[in-house]
Amino acid sequence: MTDQVGENSFEHGRLGALSHWRRFLCGPRNLKFKDVFTWQLCKTIAMGQALSMLICGTAVTCQYLVDAGVETPMMQSFLNYTLLLLTYTLVLAFRRGENNIGQILKTKWWKYFLMALTDVEANYTVVKAYQFTTLTSIQLLDCFVISVLMVLSWIFLKTRYRPLHFIAVAVCLLGVGAMVGADLLAGRDQGSSSHVLLGDGLVLVSAALYAVSNVCQEYTVKNLSRVEFLGMMGLFGTLISGVQMAILESRAIPVISWNWTICLLFVAYTLCMYGLYSFMPVVVNLTSATAVNLSLLTADLFSLFCGMFLFHYNFSALYIVSFVVITLGFILFNIVPTYTADQSYSTNDRAYHLASSADVQQDGDIVGDWLQKEGQENEDRIGSSHRAHCNGFCSQI
Question: What is the pTM of this model?
């Protein structure tokens, strides 16, 4: 009987320890399999990979333009911002009331100017980095955007992460490491190495600027509107990129050998960028800027898969491993939602204690049912033995 009680106590302690670690990793939420793989998660994964495919489209068209001797990154950005201007900015222009373009410019013009400036320079610096450093360095250092995003979200958006989120980010970065290893094995360490430190510094600057732009995008989309964000980006992005294009590419644009192929490449690039800018706020609104950037880590893999057919890149099985690992990390990140520090601590603590009590209650019920079952079986055995003994005694009489 003493051994049985000891086993019961051990079982109860083991279940309690598992519940404690689950709450530590995932927070006060009793996760079940049906709560993890939901339609919302599948939709988020699909949208994230759609964004990666759009980035893949921009990379492929850029490669074709470079092969044709066209290197005009500011002009390509200018066309994208102009298309945003002709759609979303015009929508704001025809709005009435407090949310029209006049009221927005009167109160918040300088904020959107800084946001557009950050976005334009982030696009420009990462393109310039290819002239000074290698593809491997860019792929590795570009992951710096995720850590900056998490810090900025923690400070300005009051986003709080659970341990499972940090584990998910580590898994995604492990997938990036596998992708870089596959590039090295396949001999795709392309790019210049004339000024490696300058190129690496430009990548880090670009990552920091992208992080700032994405945090501003998340705040604007979730608190104001997607149309307002894109309309202001189109307006100020067109002005800033137009001025930079006139200064930096005044000699490169006239020497372009225009033909229908070059025109189609510019159109394809602009449409992919326009789709990326239009669709990304939708995914950010559903998840977060950090989650979106984790999903975009697969964009390089899509570019590599296309490059195998279009540019005859060498294949490596590590590319498949990298894709699976990054996708797994993205799923882990979205299993448990983040929370904000603005939520009431008393409410959060109460939810935590309620969840803890529910877990203990559930564990206690499991052990209690088991003990009740064991006790019933013991009673049945004792009763059967007593009846057999009584029947034997009575037959002797």
Answer: 0.76
